[in-house]
């Protein structure tokens, strides 16, 4: 079976592959499909992404970035996810959660020190926010940063950290004034060679297995004052504003996974024959699976793109950033399930070879029909970057606050 390809450049609306085909999208798509589909690990990815210019999409050209907006960042996330969910997840953690935060909140000295190597791919970035006891309730974090002469001493740990094993530059949130609650959090830039910092257990995950995740441990980790990102005790503002944009950019992940599921399913049902004809010609397959998958993909794209364009115009809506990833994630899980159904038994097996019972069918491997992986990868977005329940709560709370303001 061929690598996923565009099935529909004949759509008068240009919807099947994108609502707005752009040179940026096609460039990313071509590079991703040719370089990342065979990859299951990240060893050689970073400098390739740097050479493509993707590690600094939203960063000013003066620091080596492209100077584009969140719409293009979401497009990059989408096309990378279409080629590899794992590569895309690690890319999002690096380019949005680390690089974009340093660009938005860092001092000039911090930007000059960290951004060039992060954008070129020479160094890997990460965000450390969640802890074993504080996931959704992130401001209840217990990582402590105590002031000392010339800097800070950190003690505690972080958990579920994407890129943790390989990251050399990390944005880390810690309590600097625990008695102030959420108003006593500070953001820091940590380097992996800081004394007292280490990575521990690498986590064995259900999906996104090519994206490394681990626990971080801080044992009397000493960091200088110049490592403070933003202002002392003002880290919750850095954190919350970053979460809105994180949800938006990562919404591209479910979009890409949906497109990949659709690509594989459509090609398969037009090759697989039963009762003497391709199964894709059966009305039930056309209506229940292909048509439903197609409309879910494009409805999700329309929402994500609209929110991204609004953000680029300065209209960042917390409820819509949450809504974009909420909706696209639910649809991505559904589309992956429908894709698995289209492939029948081949959608369910892992790592074995079989021959389709047709004289016209070649020997194929289940690795060419990775619908199970698509489903496992899509499930990450139901709990990563906030759970679906937290997203629903945020949307409801935003409307409650809006209603109260009009009373």
Total domain count: 3
What overall form do the CA principal axes indicate?
Answer: globular
**Assembly type of the shown chains?**
single chain
Order of helices and strands: HHHHHEEEEEEEEHHEEHHEEHH
Q: CATH fold name of the largest domain, please?
A: Butyryl-CoA Dehydrogenase, subunit A, domain 3
| H/I helix tally | 11
Family: Belongs to the acyl-CoA dehydrogenase family.
Pfam family, one: Acyl-CoA_dh_M
Protein name: Acyl-CoA dehydrogenase/oxidase
Domain Acyl-CoA dehydrogenase/oxidase N-terminal: 43-122
Structure explained in plain terms:
With 407 residues, this protein is an alpha+beta fold. It has three domains: 23-123, Acyl-CoA dehydrogenase/oxidase, N-terminal domain (Butyryl-Coa Dehydrogenase, subunit A, domain 1); 127-233, Butyryl-CoA Dehydrogenase, subunit A, domain 2, CATH 2.40.110.10; 239-405, Butyryl-CoA Dehydrogenase, subunit A, domain 3 (Up-down Bundle), CATH 1.20.140.10. The protein contains eleven helices and twelve strands. It has a four-stranded mixed sheet. It has a four-stranded antiparallel sheet with strand order 2-3-7-6, with helices on one face. β11 (353-355) and β12 form a beta hairpin. α3 (70-83) runs antiparallel to α8 (283-312) and α9 (318-343) packs antiparallel against α11 (388-405). The chain is globular. Mean pLDDT is 88; it is low at 1-18 and 352-366.
């Amino acid at each position: 079976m061929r690598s996923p390809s565009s099935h529909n450049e004949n759509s008068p609306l240009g919807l099947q592959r994108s609502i707005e085909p752009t040179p940026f999208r096609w460039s990313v798509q071509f590079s991703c499909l040719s370089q990342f589909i065979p990859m299951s690990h990240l060893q050689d990815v970073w400098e390739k992404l740097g050479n493509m210019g993707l590690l600094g999409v939203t960063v000013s050209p003066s620091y080596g970035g492209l100077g584009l907006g969140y719409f293009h960042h979401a497009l990059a996330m989408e096309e990378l996810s279409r080629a590899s969910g794992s590569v895309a997840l690690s890319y999002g953690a690096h380019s949005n959660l680390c690089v974009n935060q340093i660009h938005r909140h860092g001092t000039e000295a911090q930007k000059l020190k960290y951004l060039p190597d992060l954008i070129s791919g020479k160094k890997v970035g990460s965000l450390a926010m969640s802890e074993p006891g504080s996931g959704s309730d992130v401001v209840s974090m217990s990582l402590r940063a105590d002031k000392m002469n010339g800097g800070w001493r950190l003690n505690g740990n972080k958990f579920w950290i994407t890129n943790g094993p390989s990251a050399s530059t990390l944005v880390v949130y810690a309590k600097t004034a625990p008695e102030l609650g959420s108003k006593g959090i500070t953001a820091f830039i940590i380097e992996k060679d800081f004394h007292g910092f280490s990575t521990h257990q690498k986590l064995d995950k259900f999906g996104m297995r090519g994206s490394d995740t681990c626990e971080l441990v801080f044992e009397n980790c000493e960091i200088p004052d110049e490592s403070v990102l933003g202002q002392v005790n003002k880290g919750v503002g850095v954190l919350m504003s970053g979460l809105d944009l994180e949800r938006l950019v990562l919404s591209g992940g479910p979009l890409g996974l949906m497109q990949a599921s659709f690509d594989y399913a459509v090609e398969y049902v037009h090759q697989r024959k039963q009762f003497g004809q391709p199964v894709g010609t059966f009305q039930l397959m056309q209506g229940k699976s292909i048509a439903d998958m197609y409309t879910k993909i494009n409805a999700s794209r329309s929402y994500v793109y609209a929110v991204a364009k609004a953000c680029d115009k300065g209209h960042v809506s917390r409820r819509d950033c949450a809504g974009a990833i909420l909706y696209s994630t639910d649809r991505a899980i559904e589309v992956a399930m429908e894709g698995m159904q289209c492939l029948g038994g081949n959608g369910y097996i892992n790592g074995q070879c079989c021959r389709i019972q047709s004289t016209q069918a070649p020997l194929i491997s289940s690795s060419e029909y990775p619908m199970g992986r698509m489903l496992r990868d899509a499930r990450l977005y139901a709990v990563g970057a906030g759970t679906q329940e937290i997203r629903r709560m945020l949307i409801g709370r935003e409307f409650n606050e809006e209603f109260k303001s009009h009373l």
